Amino acid sequence: MKNIHEVLNHKGETLSSPDPFHPGYILKEEIEAREIIKKEFAELLNILPTHLSEIFAGKRPIGPKMARRLEAALDISAGFWLRMQSDYDLKLALQEPDPALGRIQNILEIQQRSNTSLAKAMIAYEIAQTGQSAGWVLNEGKTIYKTKKAADSEAEDKRKSDKSIPTKGKRPKKS
Prior knowledge:
Strand content: 5-15%
Low-confidence stretches: none
Number of strands: 2
């Protein structure tokens, strides 16, 4: 059984393309096949003709509101237009490199190898990326992971704010 949301050719075969194509292309073909005047169709949709031309050219996406208008005007489901737009967007995204994907894979490998929580694996990954030394610290009964640099900085801040501990060459203030 064919998916009811597929685009078929005249033989009933599913059309597919390795290259992404914007749903505006299909919309333009549909308007032309129905011999609808583009300016009048834009008015019917309550948009500017230039807006419609941008959809045809793939410069504007078909969002939920526009999909509903197209469904009302053409009797082609809003879901069809939204799925086409989503498929187009996904195909474009798959063609672009995404450095976050490598980070995600590395963190999941650390988590799996060390059998630890995702949060601890993310911290271990970040520490490995920055080359900082680190250590576990107990804080209010909870174990947290801090870099040595962060722990040292925190201790220094505490010494500076604690007036009862004299710093080099200074006497504590009398109350």
